[in-house]
Structures are given as structure tokens and as C-alpha cells.
Amino acid sequence: MKKLPPVIKNQEFDTEIIDLTYQGMGVAKVDGYPLFIENALPGEKVSIRVMKVSKNFGFAKVLAFRNESPDRVETKGSAYTQTGIAPLQHLAYPAQLKFKQAQVQELLKKAHLDIEVSDAIGMEDPFHYRNKAQVPVREIAGELKTGFFKKNSHDFIAIEDFLIQDEEIDKAIVAVRDVLQRFHVEAYDERAHKGIIRHIMVRRGHYSKQMMVVLVTRSKKLPMFTEITAAIREALPDVTTIVQNTNSEKTNVILGRENKVLFGPGYIEDQLNGLTFRISPHSFYQINPVQTEKLYAAAFERAGLTGNETVIDAYSGIGTISLSMAKHARQIYGVELVSEAVKDAKENAKINDIDNVRFETGMAENWMENWSHANLRPDVLVVDPPRKGLEPAFIESTLKMQPKKVVYISCNPSTLVRDIEGFMSDGYKVTKPILPVDQFPQTTHIETVTILEK
Ligand code: SAH
């Protein structure tokens, strides 16, 4: 007989939270049936109401707390949980770091891998760290608002303090919004696919203080753009470049392909570990500069370069890792998919007077194959892939090249564990504890450095 869920919608009862999911949701169980509950921590006894019931799990919300976890801290506002900006804001920061370490440990355990995980390196001040913001603009009651969408919904919440962004960026977004309002620029309307301004993107150099404003518009049309540019410069004297980006697609992707520079050079520069980097609108740049320096320092130390090595830096972005390693290696090869980022990387080599680095544009998996055919035999391979991790073809090429050491920087522990298994099947071993470096405080995201050696 088909088993029905043991709860029904709107049912209210008391229960205890027994776990915290990877998404930061509290878990309670009724006869083994899990209920996911926002803003609830393990050990807390709560009164709940069931909000949604599906076959294998349901969602509930807290009506009252009977007791509170010692790890609970006061939240800064429900909008940060509702939007997913800060899903862990109710958890004390030291406990967030433990939670992240434990997640990596659990994933390894599930895969039957006996690998140590170090304590996560955290931030002294785990707020207002992001050097980049991409904020949607919508019209509410005839006014332009900037904010965020509720999780899994199109409901828009107006927000001015984003809690985890550089406060100068928060201020800039409000100032740009007000300029656009003044010039009667219409907000984008998703449903009708009408209106003009879709997103405001701002990037700010942590050291350089240079600021880039990108206005993402639905079409190339931006009436009064000269006056708007002048007004933004007047309101924000620290802005060093303004770009209009056109995105005419019906899509969740924020940036379209085309950029038009309205003011300044079209990029900003920032420093990282003493080197200068040019960053263009489409280029990836680590969003937490304070933690990135710690992350890279840990990766370099573990790479153990002596000055004689050939290194491949796959997924090289604007060349931050390649160029920081260049002084300590013989030759570096980088590969990156986004051509604008590769252009930045080549320029960055020049800016920093580095000539033992070559950057290629394309898919890392294809270039690994090319290099392997060309008999390139790197001593050290550095990988820093996006969340989906490495393609099987990438690992195959690596195994042909047999680098002595692989430095794996990962932003997704589940694909990391899968890829570690891929390397281990060919005799690689994890030779140092996996190191989590918290790049994303208040969120559930985890960054790690792993060292594999033959
Ligand atoms: N190492 C850099 C960038 C890491 S982010 C840094 O620390 O700043 C990952 C990068 O991989 C992004 O720049 C993204 O554009 C690029 N990328 C994504 N898929 C790729 C692929 N299949 N081949 C090569 N690069 C890819």
C-alpha cells in the first residue's frame, strides 16, 4: 500500500530540530518523514506549522521557539533569509565555520574516503565583504527600487543594506538608482519583457578603491545617457568607469554580451598579494578579497614551488593565480573560457612585468588534451573550476600528463569529492588535510584547497 505523508498542510505541533541541511534549513522528522524549516537550529524545540507537503518531504515554519540553540545569534532582518542573501545569519560565526568543515567531512565519509579536513579559516569581520554586487531594479508604486527576489520566486523585496556587500557598493547602488529615477528611466518588467534598466552592477577594488558601475539595459536604448553618466559621476566621485551592458534576452543570466563604455577605461584595477589586476565587466574575480589572499597563500605554500617548475593553471580567469605563481616557477600555462578575462590576463602579465606565462582561450578540457598531445608535462597542475567541477575528459588528460602535484581549489565540496575519487583511481593521494577557507560568510557556500600527489 502507498504510504501517505504523516502530516497534513496547516497542521501545528511541537517538535525538535535534529539536523541542518547543506542549504542551512533545520530538519525535524515525523515517523522518518523530514520537514525542512527555515531559521531553525539543531537542538531547538519549536512549535511549527506545516506549510507544504510532498511525497517524500515537506516544509514547515516556526511559530514559537521553546528553547534556543546556544549557537543562535540575533538576525539582522528576515529579508536576508527570505532572499537567500544570508541563509546562515542566525548561526554564530564560529558555528558557521564548524558547519562548513563538517559538511566536507560528511561528504568524504559518505564516499568512504578517510581524509582529514582542517578547521576552516574564517574572517575577523564576516560582514560587508563582497567586492561586487548585481542588483535587480524594479518599479514599486511608481518608484525605482533595488533589492532582491525571494528564494524560488519572482517576489521582489526592496533592500538598501545588503549585509554582505562592501558598504560603499550599497551606497553606490542607491545613488545610481536615484539618478535613474531622476531621469525617468523605466525599470525592467520581466513579464511583459518591457522597460529599460534590468540590473545595476557595481564592482569596487578593495585596495585601489576604484569603482565600476554597469547599467544592464534591455535594449541599446538608454535615453539621456550622457546626462545620466554625468549625474552618476557627480553623485559618486569615486566611480572610475561606467559601462552600459545590453541584455535583450528573457533570461536569469544578468549580463548580456555587449558593453558600451560610457565613461573611463571600461575596467577597474585592484591589487591582490602585491600584484595589480585589471578587471573587465565579464571577467571573473574572487568576490572576497580578504579571504582570497589567505586562500591563495595556502595554495602557494602547498604547491611548494622552487622556481624550476612547469605549471598549468586551469580555469585561470584574469590570471590571478598564474601571475602570483610566476615568480616562483619556470613557466606557467593558463587556460580560460571567457575571452574578455583572457584579454585581461594577458594585459595583467604586462602590467606586472611577467613574461613566463602563456594564456590560452578555450575549454580547459580541450586544452588539457592539446597540451597532453604536445607532450607538455607539468610538474604542478592548479585547478579552480566552477561549481560543476572537472569534466571526466579533463581528469583523463591529467592522468596522461602525470603531474607530480595537483592543487585543487574548489567552491563545491560535492564535485570536489567526486573528482578526488577520479584522481585516486589512478594512484593519486590526498597528502595534506583539506583546507576550507570561508569566502562566503553568512551563506552555505564553501571554498577549499586540496593537494593531490602521485
Ligand atoms: N582562478 C581564477 C578564476 C576561477 S573561477 C581566480 O581565482 O580568479 C572559474 C573560471 O573558470 C571562470 O573565470 C570561468 O569563466 C572559467 N571557466 C568556466 N568553465 C570553463 C571551462 N570549461 N574551461 C575553462 N574555463 C572555464
For this entry, give a set of tags.
alpha+beta, binds S-adenosyl-L-homocysteine, globular, 10 helices, 26% helix, eight-stranded mixed sheet
Mind explaining what this structure looks like?
The structure is a single chain. Helix content is 26%, strand content 29%. With 454 residues, it is an alpha+beta fold. The model has no long low-confidence stretch (mean pLDDT 97).
Mean pLDDT: 97
Please count the helical segments: 10
Share in β-strands: 25-35%
Please tell me what the overall shape is.
Answer: globular
Structure summary, number of beta strands: 23
Query: Main beta sheet, described?
Result: 8 strands, mixed
Residue stretches low in confidence (pLDDT < 50, at least 5 long) are none
Fraction in helix:
25-40%
Bound molecules: S-adenosyl-L-homocysteine
Rg, alpha carbons: 24 Å
What is the straight-line distance between the termini? 53 Å
* Global structural class: alpha+beta
What's the layout of helices and strands?
Layout: E1 12-16, E2 19-20, E3 26-30, E4 33-37, E5 45-53, E6 58-65, H1 78-82, H2 93-110, E7 132-140, E8 143-149, E9 156-158, H3 167-182, E10 197-204, E11 211-217, H4 225-235, E12 239-246, E13 258-263, E14 268-272, E15 275-279, H5 289-303, E16 310-314, H6 320-326, E17 331-336, H7 339-351, E18 357-361, H8 364-373, E19 380-383, H9 392-401, E20 405-410, H10 413-424, E21 429-430, E22 435-437, E23 447-453
Task: Give a short overview.
With 454 residues, this protein is an alpha+beta fold. Helix content is 26%, strand content 29%.
